[in-house]
From TrEMBL:
Origin superkingdom: Eukaryota
The protein, known as: G protein-coupled receptor kinase
Family: Belongs to the protein kinase superfamily. AGC Ser/Thr protein kinase family. GPRK subfamily.
Record-linked Pfam families: Pkinase, RGS
Domain Protein kinase: 193-336
Residues the record marks as active site: D319
InterPro entries per record: GPCR_kinase (IPR000239), Kinase-like_dom_sf (IPR011009), Prot_kinase_dom (IPR000719), Protein_kinase_ATP_BS (IPR017441), RGS (IPR016137), RGS_sf (IPR036305), Ser/Thr_kinase_AS (IPR008271)
Organism (species): Anguilla anguilla (European freshwater eel)
Residues binding ATP, per UniProt: K222
Entry EC no(s): 2.7.11.-
GO biological process, one term: G protein-coupled receptor signaling pathway
Domain RGS: 54-175
Single GO MF annotation: G protein-coupled receptor binding
Length: 336
């Protein structure tokens, strides 16, 4: 009977994994409900008091940029070419190899700079043009090649155009989303997740695979039993884990198992973490034996980048071992 239950749990978990890949968030079983537009006045005051209503703060977060872009596409025609140029530069900055950057930088230069120079319609400074031309002539293509253009694009958008955005319905929608973002951690409960099979155990509880109802995304839910914590006098350890997870989850390092949400029930403390379903290094070592030098260099590089991310936040990782280095489905590692 126990074997049958284990098989059913495995099947349920695998079905949830497949569903998370194929079901768009918009069609997930539980929808995110935005607050009424009247929340704008409250949120605007809240953001102003915390200096979060500046152009840079809004433009440099994804939801703010997308709503600002949507506003310009519908209302400010002259800003559209600059936003497209900005997006091209940001895609260029993500390229890893110098060869890719050299090819893409030439395309950007020909499509956005040279084309406008030839038509005498280039709205940017000679200093920005000279900076890019000098580097391209020497075949020097650092990720920051187009940084002078980023600065000038932002300067051109942060004035009257940004003020018109603040007065628009798109800013109202931004306030609605910010209200959801700021309140989501408070309102989370077990009902927001479909909890599946146990995928790990620890000193204070278990780790489950789970699926968030409103987005369909899969996570790992680490549940710490409050009675077990109290019995083992582990209150400080549990609190420290929560604090450390919050610290290392800031930023965008892909080599850390990040905490996305945290909440508690009458019986448990729950941490919602990135799901790593590729096993751990200890498992792969025991199954496949010694790694090749090429594999070891690859894993070591990603481990070092993860440690660097922690050290930049003044966190020392004191439990580094193969069992705590998890792999995702693509073979990249993350610190647990």
């Amino acid at each position: 009977m126990a074997d049958l239950e284990a098989v059913l749990a495995d099947v349920s978990y695998l079905m949830a994994m497949e569903k998370s890949k194929s079901t768009p968030a918009a069609r997930a079983s539980k929808k995110i409900i935005l607050p009424e537009p009247s929340i704008r006045s409250v949120m605007q005051k809240y953001l102003e008091e915390r200096d979060e209503l500046t152009f840079d703060k809004i433009f440099n977060q994804k939801i703010g940029f997308l709503l600002f872009k949507d506003f310009c596409l519908n209302e400010i025609d002259e800003a559209v070419p600059q936003l497209k140029f900005y997006e091209e530069i940001k895609e260029y900055e993500k390229l890893d190899s110098e060869e890719e950057r050299l090819c893409r930088s030439r395309q950007i230069y020909d499509g956005y700079i040279m084309k406008e120079l030839l038509s005498c319609s280039h709205p940017f400074s000679k200093k920005a043009v000279d900076h890019v031309q000098t580097h391209l002539a020497k075949k020097q293509v650092p990720p920051t090649l187009f940084q002078p253009y980023i600065v000038e694009i932002c300067d051109s958008l942060r004035g009257k155009i940004f003020q018109k955005f603040i007065e628009s319905d798109k800013f109202t929608r931004f306030c609605q989303w910010k209200n959801v973002e700021l309140n989501i951690h408070v309102s989370l409960t077990m009902n927001d997740f479909s909890v599946h099979r146990i995928i790990g155990r620890g000193g204070f509880g278990e780790v489950y695979g789970c699926r968030k109802a409103d987005t369909g995304k899969m996570y790992a839910m680490k549940c710490l039993d409050k009675k077990r914590i109290k019995m083992k006098q582990g209150e400080t350890l549990a609190l420290n884990e929560r604090i450390m997870l919050s610290l290392v989850s800031t930023g965008d390092c892909p080599f850390i198992v990040c905490m996305t949400y945290a909440f508690h029930t009458p019986d448990k403390l729950c941490f919602i973490l990135d799901l790593m379903n590729g096993g751990d290094l200890h498992y792969h070592l025991s199954q496949h034996g010694v790694f090749s030098e090429k594999e070891m260099r690859f894993y070591a590089a990603e481990i070092i980048l993860g440690l660097e991310h922690m050290h930049n936040r003044f966190v020392v990782y004191r439990d580094l071992k193969p069992a705590n280095i998890l792999l995702d489905e693509h073979g990249h590692v993350s610190h647990l």
